[in-house]
Amino acid sequence: MAVPKRKTSKSKRDMRRSHHKAEVLSLGTCSHCGQPKKPHFICPSCGYYKNKEIVKVSGE
Ligand SMILES: [Zn+2]
Question: What is the whole-number distance in angstroms between the Cα of residue 8 and the centre of ligand 1?
Fold first, then answer.
């Protein structure tokens, strides 16, 4: 099995981990109900996408 020749320095380890962060949430608003929703996803609160009802949301 291949094994690293050198211990990764704290600097290199931390440089690698500098990308380990939570993704920034990008949210749009639904044009039908105005609730926040993910772009290119159907609206979770009303089930609309492109001004058309795609799925029925229970408890509306
Ligand atoms: Zn909606």
Answer: 49
